[in-house]
Design goal:
mainly alpha; 4 helices; 86% helix
Length: 108
Amino acid sequence: MRLAESTRSWVTVLTDAMMFVIGSVAMLAAPAYFILQPWAVSKLTGGWRKAALLPLIPAFPLVLWCAYALADQSNLWPVPFLLFAPFGTFYLAILLVAAQMRALRNGN
């Protein structure tokens, strides 16, 4: 009986910590995307720059939709972009790391 209570308590703490980390990453993804997108486009060249421009294909219409929803006084106006932002941020972060690793491997 005592073991089950201590295990349940430990799992609850672990779950709370994991949800805090996931929530924090999701909330920071939107500002990080707005920082990473122009930075990646300005720092990368050639095919890497074209790859950095790819997230703008869904991001631009989403920003327009969010602006329209805000103008229409919707209380859920940022939700579409907030759902997209973690994927766009993750993509750009992976792209920047891959480009840096390629440059280091080629001796640049």
